Amino acid sequence: MSLIVLNWKELLSVDEAKDLLNEYLAGWNERLASKDQLVICPSNIALGRLSTIPLPAGIYWGVQNLAPVMERPLTGENGGAEVAGLGGKFALLNHVERELVGEDHSQLADRILNAVSNNLTPIICATETQLEEIIGVLLVLSNEEAKSKLLIAFEPSTAVGGSEPWALATAEELINGWRARFERELKCEVGFLYGGGIRAEDLRSFLGSEALQGVLLGRLSLQPELVMQAIQ
């Protein structure tokens, strides 16, 4: 079963997001649901509007970031309970674009706990230079459930933003090495996704990799006809 995460960023209006959702729903069927899972991460505003639309088996809502605290209000952030209340099941954390607004790893552990405490699966985004820091964050995280539920979305720094992806064999070699280290040091299995510059013609090969549990799609996710054609 492969996980296909669609990160729509803030590139769409609510109406455009609704139209895009309907295109994915029109192409989805039971056969696809038996082998793939689709996680749709719209903007916060769009999620609030679209979450009332029933989703078929195999399609889930996700959020693009999560607050680092649970016990008090925090203006401008997504609360884990709020996201779960909208039907959310996944939370992207630590996306490289968050660095543009000054976010770093100092609150990542709290964001992970916020996700897990609200039954959201955390998907931690990391470039090749961030994986070492991610291990450091997880080593001091005492919550074993959190460690066992999380996924790592590996995004090469040279491929983020629509450039060509790494060659699959190169990505597999790095991910297999890091998976072994994560499992050795964290004492738990960690699933890996690949994200960064994936083209429609490469999607099926990445989804077929034994080293990967799925993919994280950015701009390609805005082209449902190409994504659905690739996964048929």
Spell out the key features of this protein.
232 residues; 10 helices; 8 strands
Description:
The chain has 232 residues and is α/β, with parallel strands linked by helices. The chain has a single domain (2-231), classed as TIM Barrel. Helices cover 39% and strands 18% of the residues. It has ten helices and eight strands. The protein has helices at 14-27, 30-33, 44-50, 80-85, 108-117, 131-139, 144-149, 168-186, 200-207, 224-231; strands at 2-7, 36-41, 59-63, 88-93, 121-126, 151-154, 191-195, 214-217. It has an eight-stranded parallel beta barrel. α9 links the parallel β7 (191-195) and β8 (214-217). It is globular.
SSE inventory with pairings:
Elements lengths: L1 E6 L6 H14 L2 H4 L2 E6 L2 H7 L8 E5 L16 H6 L2 E6 L14 H10 L3 E6 L4 H9 L4 H6 L1 E4 L13 H19 L4 E5 L4 H8 L6 E4 L6 H8 L1
Parallel strand pairs: 1-2, 1-8, 2-3, 3-4, 4-5, 5-6, 6-7, 7-8
Helix pairs in contact: 1-3, 6-8, 9-10
Summarize the entry for a quick read.
This protein has helices spanning 14-27, 30-33, 44-50, 80-85, 108-117, 131-139, 144-149, 168-186, 200-207, 224-231, and strands spanning 2-7, 36-41, 59-63, 88-93, 121-126, 151-154, 191-195, 214-217. The protein is an alpha/beta fold and 232 residues long.
